[in-house]
Amino acid sequence: MRLLILDHFFSQDIESLEAALAPGDELRVLDYDVLRSEALRMFPPEVASGLEAFTRPEHDQARQRYARKLRDLLADEFSRQPFDAFVSPSDTFFYVRAAPEACHELGVPFLVVQKETTISNLIMATTDTLRSHASPIADHMTVCGDRLRDFWLRAGIDARAITVTGQPRFDFYRDPDRWPDQLPYGDDAAPTLLFFSYHIDHHHPTQGQGVPVWERQHRETEEQLWDLARRGWPVLVKPHPQQPWQAARKGMRREAGELLGKSVFLIEPRADARRLVVVQVGVGLLLLPLANDSDRLWAVGLYGLLTIVAGLAVFVLLACALRSGPSWLEWYGTRSAAARRPRRRMGRLHQTPGSNHRCLLSSPPVRCHRQQRYRASTPRIFRPCTFAALRELGYETRVPINNGVGPGSPHATEMSLSLSAWDTAGNHIGTTDELRRLEPGELVKLRVEEQLERLANVPVGENVLCMFHSVPVDWLGEETVDVPSAAMMAHVRASDDFIEYHQVSGPVITGVAYQTGPLNDRRLSSTRTTVCQAPKVIVSEPVDTLFLLMNLSTSFDYDDTVRMDFWILGPQGERVARSHVEVPPVSFRLVSATAALSEAGELEAYREGGGVGMFLGLSTNGTVVPISLTRNKQSGAIACDHTLPPMFYLSTWGGEARLAANARLEEEFFADVVDRNPVGVGSSS
Q1: What CATH number is associated with residue 431?
Q2: From edge to edge, which strands make up the β-sheet containing 543-551?
Q3: pTM above 0.70?
Q4: Which of 102, 244, 551, 560 could be disulfide-bonded to 583 (CB atoms 3.0-4.6 Å)?
Q5: Within a domain: 280
Q6: 28-83 pLDDT, tens digit each
Q7: Does some domain include residue 83?
């Protein structure tokens, strides 16, 4: 069985589903924002506000366009690596409403594993609206319990298409071997308070109108928590995964003051709540918000939580009870001290410079083809911008750095900028201190030469490889972190990097846009190849074409030299010159088409035939980033272009199709690579 699963804050269930797979089964993950961002390019923002807006007649053409796009996206995923079912945590998301038709064209079902544990009375009364605007469309649906089954039956699902299975993520509570060890917070002799924070304008009939209906309750709860923290209680506060992270952090810094990092600890919003719960069993108190009696929204949520931990003797404290003061809590702390067991340690700590703020990263990575988290990643390569400083060609470099994930995204974060440089042999010259910080959505343009002056031993006038690091400020000071794939891809997809080259002694300004996202990393892919097809070879005097090949990685222990074999073809596809180049790790090479043709003794004949043709390259042991530079050797002017890999213009490129095509290309053009092993030419760096 091979599953493609849509991750919409669904990592805990995905982890449990992956753990339940039989040997040989496969699970891949598709981040929800891949689909949502595509949909929002075609629809007005209002469609994200509710079910009714998406179904309005005026959006009919947009729905048809997006249905075609979704079909292409899923077909592309299927061509890369076939799957037997597409699984989503809901079928009411506007960007999956066209999924059944797209899946059925591929011959696979669209399944829903509902991530909600129960339904409030308020939501239960909305089934008529749901039936009108977003009736169930899944081929089959699994739900946590009978109440949810009743809800979806009322909404219109066929009783034969729904099954009560329980919640996959709750399997965690039956497997103590998966539980974390002791938590490194506060005094082990004191019980711990765990508070699940919440939006102050959600889960109420006024939701969506901006009414902060729970503001007073939330404020008073936190005031009592800080009072308990001053008395020595460790207080852990975990925001909701969709709460504005920046606002929560700034608010706690302002209100908790010096308590932060000493007795008050802010947990990263995407941390695994299950690990927090099991750590607190028999140790402290679990704090949950409870709505007023007329709504009972959170009481239902409390019922769901108590169901999953039944028999584990969890102490539950309702937030509204805190208003009476902390005295009875202190009584509980005294009575329960003898019964407490050692607390378990969880996750990986990271320290924010300038504060004692300590956070916890989320759960361990899911072991799947597209992993949920990239373990032991160096923070500096979370969102790299990598480029060659072409100083030997007479150019300075300027780079606009964009913290492209804006304040409205759950992945928004303040970024710290720094710069690293390597010489052409791949030797690390050094890394600067922090250059500046970027708020979410902020953009700044930096002159690279000015930043290189901060480093010692930069070779004067020589080419260097540079990498700007955009690091979430909460990861500063950490050697390694476990990076959420959704966060990484949100920042990678936010924008390309535009590299500007300014001629030092002339008027030429040129540039190229591309990305150097996750590359040459065994945690992401076991297959690393490059096909470079560049119909841009121009060698008519005084013009030459240079191919800049960068060998990069998101793995901090990467040390592979990548070999690219290549042909220069004539205008009719005839094979003219054959050679290869080896690119050391974390380095680049410039390959001159003129030099390659000259070495083969074909330069003059090639020029007589028009001096134009194609570069065809293949590397089977790694990925290189190819940039073509058409250069006038007299004026020094260059024109840049990013040579895109086949996946950008061939929808079926990927998976077995990619491997088969590479094998055919190697057989046809480079079958002699082992025996012939020619000496590489044309490397000017």
Answers
A1: 2.60.290.11
A2: 587-592, 543-551, 625-632, 638-642
A3: no
A4: 551
A5: yes
A6: 999 898 899 889 889 998 888 777 899 999 999 999 999 999 999 999 888 878 99
A7: yes
